[in-house]
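User: Predict the complex with iron/sulfur cluster.
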Amino acid sequence: MRRGACPSLAAPMETGDGLLARLPPAAMPPEAWVALAEAAQRAGNGLLDITARGSVQLRGLRAETLDLAAQLVPAEWPRGALVMTSPLAGEALDETRDPRPLATGLAAAAPPGLPPKATVLVDGGGALHLAAETADLRLVARPEGWRLGRGGEWRDAGEDDTAFAAALDLLRVMAREPRRQPMAGTAGPPPEPIGLHRLRDGVALGLGLPFGRVDAETLIAFARASGARALRGAPGRALLAIGVPDADALRRHAATLGFITDPADPRRRVAACPGAPGCAAALTETRGLAATLAPLVPPGALLHVSGCAKGCAHPRAATRALVGTSRGLGLIRRGRAGDTVAEMLDPQDARAVLAREFAAHA
Ligand code: SF4
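Assistant: Here is the predicted structure with iron/sulfur cluster placed in the model:
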């Protein structure tokens, strides 16, 4: 696969637990999620991830099961990851504008030659806006029209048709020019996906996946019980059940299945990448450690447990980071996984050390 390209079913990525393929966030009917989970069971290792951006990953695929996976994943599931919309696009009651026509048009008209990881955000606004996400090109809904941003420069782009033309011009420039630095999202906490969201027609229920992971059996049980119009991955390693008949009953059921139903759940204050053995680059196990340490993390703090200095689960600074190094487990205070290690820890002592660290933080 090309360096920097997103892993897909056509070009999966080698990891510690086999090949990994990523599908972009998409609102799909529950039966499509059941089919996806069955693909994970039959062609992969039965584990799925929802990423920080709401994409879905199948793990543990093998060269000889890729064709089967491609057959089992619903054909309607979008494959292109260029254009991303706000997760309740066209549904949220508080949305400023419906981003779907622009997003669909741009995805279809995108010129060849764009950088492999180019991202265009079409943000309709509302509570689950995309302001915190990094992108090469941003279209943000305002009541008076779209705002178009690239490279830190913003301009008014008017209604859908003029915004489409202006964005397409910039995509053509991006296809010709060397890649500029993407525009970082706004600082500050991103929107909270967990909980109830009012729709034009009904409600959506947002749930968290512990460290972004769910097994296929659990996902199938949830999808079948949801009664939702659609399910969608959402930024924040969350799953949205859109248009549910009885949100309270579904929330209780989701809790019994192991989903996170409360935004104050301490696991939401820990970012942890797959670590060993899931990632070939990992120098330590991560998620077991993260689950053990989560109750120690106070509200307002963030613990990052990273298998190596790359820091995939949280590229920004965390209150404390534990990182796998060739020398063992390193502790970083107020930094990123790649920053200088303040001290090395014996994993046996991690609980006691983190309790002390977070007591001092409080
Ligand atoms: S941070 Fe390192 S160990 Fe974790 S997923 Fe990324 S490359 Fe793998």
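The domain at 267-361 is CATH 3.30.413.10 (Sulfite Reductase Hemoprotein; domain 1).
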